Amino acid sequence: MNYAARTKLSVLVFSFALLISSAIHAKQPDADQQSPAQPPQEQPKPQGPGGAPPGQQPPQELKNIQLLKGMTRPQVLQVMQEWQSSLGVQCNYCHVRPFEQDTTRKTTARIMLRDYVMGMKHKDGSAVSCKDCHNGQATPLRTRPFENAFTGKQGGRQIFKGLSDDKLMEVMNAFTKALGVKCDYCHVQSDFDQDTPRKQIARFMITEFSSKLVKSEGGAAVTCTECHKGRPRPLSDLAPPRPPQEQKPADAKPEVKKPNS
């Protein structure tokens, strides 16, 4: 092979190698054109028992909730704090440990909440609260001083001055039926105009409560029947059953006090 032929063959081989190298290089992505790096995925935070952050206890499950079902624990605690302020008491006035345990006062509170607070509203449509009746006193009718009730000096009609005798008798008969009593429960038979403690309390209940409230459903007027239901002392006469832990054994002997030695 002469020199010219060898030169042509060398050029052909070099050109073929260059073509293959170019093709291979074209398939590799350029460093400047690589896809942007993906942001690092957020790692899940460690959790303690019940899904709470480490070192924090999970919220305790509410137990024995009857009328406040559907509320969260903070909401229930807020309601409890409002009741404490309205009645001027602390938690242990109704609760014992464990807190879900029933007590007589918890049963009474449910009756009050269901029949009065939830069952009634003010005539302007605003909600009834414990404070409307209690106003910082756990037993408002027992602790409220009815000064004029015990003097016997303030007699005669007061809130029913404009009623005829016939209409007044209808009202009085409605009272006796609502409370399940007779006239002498409030009146002195020998002098119906004479004031008594129960007449004074009756005026207070009418002017402060029944005359200002309506039923939550339908908006009908509230009467003595809504609360009393044929009982003169509804909360006492309903006698919520005492839970077993509050009852004394049937065979328990009365405590005998020993004389001082």
Provide an overview of this structure:
The structure is a single chain. The chain has 261 residues and is mostly helical. The protein is built from nine helices and two strands, in the order αααβααααβαα. Strands 1-2 form a two-stranded antiparallel ribbon. The chain is rod-shaped. The protein starts with a helix and ends in a 23-residue tail after the last helix. The model is unreliable at 257-261 (pLDDT under 50).
Show unreliable segments: 257-261
Shape: rod-shaped
Main beta-sheet strand count, sense and barrel state: 2 strands, antiparallel
What is the subunit organization of this protein? single chain
How large is the count of helical segments?
Answer: 9
Strand content: under 5%
Output the keywords.
single chain; 261 residues; mainly alpha; two-stranded antiparallel sheet; disordered C terminus
Write a brief caption for the model.
The protein is an all-alpha fold and 261 residues long. Helix content is 38%, strand content 2%. The chain has 9 helices and 2 strands; from the N terminus they run H-H-H-E-H-H-H-H-E-H-H.
